[in-house]
């Protein structure tokens, strides 16, 4: 097996333990935390919003660090910091301290997996880059299949602190694996991208745009790309993080509700590879247009009359659509600006992912004011259609790797 696939699986593990624990595990922790400490869902959603905001601000920071330090070193440190922060989350009943630790764990997601994992995939793959991004980022959704249900069992048999302890220790265990396995580029092992016998035949490329921060700051297309994916990821994270409470509120028993949430996460994991295949088979921009439209249509299914069957259709279809967003985003950046400009351009675009944090208060206050998530869903559908419109502004002819893709 090509060594790059081993690194993609390790990146999947980082996303599984950290991205999944900060996002999906709130399906299991939200109600027990409220019961144990007297917190409200609105307060917890604000805590998630703050942690998410700082976590998204950590994306450009992680991109900058990736240009200065070894990716191997960063991946190792990220696992240790994120694991310890997760353990300590279960040891406090103070909301401010919980939010601080939550913020540290969320920031570590960009180092162990996240930005560093995407940088590794961009280095190790070319023609199979979309699928590599898909495998690495599938860990986030796969964790939604396993970790919330496992956390729920641990909470029911022990308590919240034990559940956080187990997740944190498993995260720390990734550190030695990262140190042993990660290599920054295939060239350091006398290999070539995709496991080929030579460097990729790139053909004639379109001249790369100015990917300095100043250059991107004056590029309308960079703003369109960032805002489009920022809004789409806002909807994805907000809805997927609270699937189980949504279904319980609609009258579904807790364990079936959790199974529905886990099924949505499983579909999202499968979707990451599937949308990666679409990026490789067609173009990442084509995949971007398709996924924005599919996300809006699938969210509309949430307005169907509530029953186990309609909510099953909603959860599975929504997972199959939104799951590919984290695959398509890095593929679009690498395709549009060129693999050699991936980190500086991804650094700029990632600034707009902080929009993701706005969705949690929208969810929380929709519940507090209306007793459900319907009002939030209406806002989210409108924002997804706006994302589609913004993505249409990105044209194939402007992509740096467009000619190379046609030749391949």
Automatic annotation (TrEMBL):
The chain crosses the membrane at residues 46-66, 73-91, 97-120, 132-155, 161-182, 252-275, 287-307, 313-336, 373-394. Coiled coil: none annotated. It holds the Pfam family MFS_1. SUPFAM superfamilies: MFS general substrate transporter. It comes from the Bacteria. Signal peptide: none annotated. One of its GO terms (molecular function) is transmembrane transporter activity. Keywords: Membrane, Transmembrane, Transmembrane helix. This is Sugar phosphate permease. It comes from Desulfovibrio intestinalis.
